[in-house]
Write a structure and sequence with these properties.
The complex is a heterodimer of chains A (82) and B (186). Chain A has 82 residues and is mainly alpha-helical. Helices cover 59% and strands 7% of the residues of chain A. Chain A has one domain. Chain B folds into two domains: 90 residues, Orthogonal Bundle (Rna Polymerase Sigma Factor, Chain: A); 77 residues, Orthogonal Bundle (Arc Repressor Mutant, subunit A), CATH 1.10.10. The chains are: A mainly alpha (82), B mainly alpha (186).
């Protein structure tokens, strides 16, 4: 636990004092904005992830195409003569 | 809190999960308490106002995850408020402030042998400055917010016995150092 400082307040906080900061509509608005922002971020991340997967897939396909085709190895067939 | 009140709150919470406007009733009910709790830990009205709003916004974000666990709904709000305050201090790297009302200190400590004067208050503040922060947090919730140990443990993420032990230790020191009788109902 960190350090702290104790201060003494002579006056009691009045209800009127806190009323200046009481605003439920602002809280609702902020909640809505943050919720929307979260949704957009989630969708963006999802799209980004899909794009990344597609890019990786394309890169692998291209790499596979670029690979020189392997010469077919001749298999020695041996006839079994009975 | 009576059974009826708890049931009424639960109904509001259930409604709030579907319609955030319903949460307004709980906002109005607990705003002053949460604001004063934060103000006591910041000593800055503007900041307390901002953190208080953020507390209720966070509560609204997470209301779907709220489950009744035997504590009043306010304990959950206190916990969120405490987290917001801690986040603020972590971000700004400042010392935590506890702003205590003189009237409350007088209520807390019943004078025994010594005269209650300015010097006594200064000595008491100096003593409280030297106590560990977690001890001050427990004392604050116990005596300024009237919370029981079970609730304190939930708010501060500690065990009930841990909360009790910290309070006993702090009060013991207070009794020995100041020869004071402290109202304490265990």
């Amino acid at each position: 636990m960190g350090k702290h400082e104790i201060r003494l307040r002579r006056q009691r906080m009045s209800a009127r004092g806190s009323d200046r900061y009481r605003n439920y509509n602002a809280v609702l608005k902020q909640h809505g904005n943050e919720k929307r922002f979260k949704q957009i971020t989630r969708i963006f991340t999802f799209l980004l992830l899909i794009a990344l997967i597609v890019i990786i897939f394309m890169a692998i396909t291209r790499w596979e195409k670029k690979q020189p085709s392997k010469p077919q190895t001749k298999t020695n067939s041996t006839a079994v003569v009975t | 809190m009576s059974e009826d009140e708890i049931r009424k709150e639960e109904q509001i919470i259930e409604r709030s999960k579907k319609d955030p406007h319903a949460f307004g009733e709980l906002y109005e009910k607990y705003f002053d308490r949460i604001f004063n709790y934060i103000l006591r830990q910041t000593d800055d009205e503007e900041l307390a106002g901002d953190l208080c709003s953020q507390t209720f916004v966070n509560a609204l974000h997470n209301i779907n995850r709220y489950e009744f666990r035997g504590f009043p709904f306010s304990a959950w709000l206190y916990k969120i408020a405490g987290n917001e305050v801690n986040k603020h201090y972590r971000k700004n790297k400042g010392n935590k402030i506890f702003s205590i009302e003189e009237l409350k200190v007088r209520e807390l400590v019943e004078q025994a042998a010594e005269e209650w004067d300015e010097e006594m208050i200064t000595r008491l503040l100096r003593y409280m400055n030297e106590l560990p922060t977690d001890m001050i947090q427990v004392l604050e919730l116990r005596f300024f917010e009237d919370k029981d140990f079970k609730e304190i443990a939930f708010i501060l993420d500690m065990t009930e016995s841990g909360a009790k032990m910290r309070t006993y230790r702090a009060l013991d020191k207070l009794r020995t150092n100041f020869n004071l009788k402290v109202k304490y109902d265990g």
